[in-house]
Amino acid sequence: MADGSPLAHSPTLASSPPRGHDDEDELAPGTAVGEYVVERFLGAGAMGEVYAGKQPVIGKKVAIKVLKREVAASADGAERFTREARAVNQVDHPGVIDIFSFGRMADGRLYLVMDLVEGKSLRKALIDGPLAPEAALDVLAQIADALDAAHARGVIHRDLKPDNVMLAPGEPPKVYVLDFGLAKLLSTEGASAKASMLTGQGTWLGTPGYMAPEQWSADGAGPASDRYALGVIGFELLSGSLPFKADSLPQMMEQHFRAKVPALSSRGALPASAAFDPVVSRAMAKDPDARFATAREMVEALRAVHAGKRAPAAAAPTRLWVPAAAGAGVLGMSIAAVLALQGGEDDPPRREPELAPSAAPAGTAPFELLTAPPGAEVRRGGKLLGTTPIALDVAPSERFHVELRKPGYETITTEVSGKRAPFSSAYGLTEIAGFEGVWTLPGGQLRAFRRTGDRVAINKLDTVDGAQTFFRHLDFVAAETGVTFATSEEVIDPRAPNEPSCHIPHRVEYHYEPATDAFELRRERVVVDLVGGSCVKRSAALDPPIKLARADRRSETERVTLPPVGKPVFEKKKPAKSAPVKSATNAKNAKQKAFEAVQNADIPSEPQPQAANPPPSLPPAQKTDDSQVAPPVPQQQMKKN
Predict the structure, then answer these.
(1) Are 30 and 345 in contact (CB under 8 A)?
(2) Are the C-beta atoms of 184 and 197 separated by less than 8 Å?
(3) Lowest CB count within 10 Å: 69, 350, 365, 618, which one?
(4) What's 338-345+365-428's CATH class?
(5) Which fold has domain 13-306?
(6) Helix (H/G/I), strand (E/B), else coil: 149
(7) Confidence at 196, pLDDT banded by 50, 70, 90
(8) Which burial class, exposed, middle or buried, applies to 253 when counting CB atoms under 10 A from its CB (0-12, 13-18, 19+)?
(9) Nearest 5°: phi and psi at 317?
(10) Catalytic residues
(11) Are 236 and 242 in contact (CB under 8 A)?
């Protein structure tokens, strides 16, 4: 049964959008990855590509996951990867797939190797609709055991969903949980974090339909977040549909933060399954402390009500959970509409949710700003207040405007009013992507530009519609107007190619103005002197901008030409016998008379019977110096009725 929500089964999303799957990164069959060989491509996700492979000597079948380049972007990426892989193996549970090999490829990408599970994902098992309660409870019990074992070792999944659960053939099927702990690989500190898909505090990673409220925020995911996701999976297995549906990320956030868990019957489950409703509602409580203490406890409660026993008392939520600084982000997604999580001043009044305790100064209340994706600068009068998600302490009498700015996105101006605090507003930032397409450089070279999340991919090509070859990636940088993306290219001074100081980075940047569709390239000119075998930079400055021209749109000056097939041959003909034309004037007069003869011919209004002996064919037209003269028209005597 397909879920109609666009976000229902979306790929894992990161708060800092990772680069999408590029065909040029895909490994061909036969490619060596460590001591293993790739056999076929299985799929791509938020963290990387997955391949089926084998150990060529002993023939062991394996799954090879090649992680995205962003995972290896930071200096300690490999160390983190090793530590997390070791932590997952320490879980030592039959339902958790072990990682038994890992390393780094020649191009810098990290990879890991695990057992290849033959079977199908839990997602595919749901295609035909909900599972029978007995089958659903058996699957949930095996997932719960794996969760509790991992949590006991301090390992959190962070992206639990049916796509990451495999069912091996059997009756009942053996359940395996994939990607355990790998989400924690997406966590780092330092300056490299901005250019990485690794996320730290204040950001998130997960799939929106399964994310607990705290997972969207600075509070971050914990064991209770995995148990919330298990509750969502339980709802889906029993009803065939997710509890929350939305067309945009802010709307999905709103439901996870505030909406009541619907009855299973409202999503297609049989009325008899209503006994499960209190258990699922407790598993998905907004407050993490109100949920079940263990995953196994949740499954035992479901088994109890299925056997007709009384459901365990659900813990009453102490508050409607709203994080102190909640955030939202999305991979490769532009949300044009702005959604306020609360109605406007003209909307009917409704009860305000109780906010989490905050350290706001006396006499003020928090006004929360969230953006999708997060990380937008919040500026007031040019002064930086922080980045989203952010909670501004606003006095009741205060009212001012702020700008939400993020490189690569349109700027949003919104009002902050103390009269509406406590308040949460989520805004979808709109991507600027008008530069996408094929452009011509001043030298005539063609370049194709394509936005991939918070980066721009540039491809080379020989013709506008020809095959493209990947050239480079550039990152968005701050710009007052429009959008700018840039990178650094290393230029080696040929006078001392082996001297490290002579490997000099040069900045390359592109700027695009959507209002005028103007696209410019600027390159850094660096003056270097060779002193004692070392390179000394004397000056560096960007050259004047070079304008690019669109090549994938037709223009008024476009011209289509074809080469001649061969040399034309003209046959000389003898002129027809006729009265000589004495002058150009006489030629024109003759032409005029012939034209009048045709126009004034006495032509009958009705078709006449054709003569038995038709008149001879007319002689060919005579050719003059500038035109053809029509042949003489014979005047026929018409009978008058």
Answers:
(1) no
(2) no
(3) 350
(4) mainly beta
(5) Transferase(Phosphotransferase); domain 1 (1.10.510)
(6) helix
(7) very low
(8) buried
(9) -65, 130
(10) 159
(11) yes
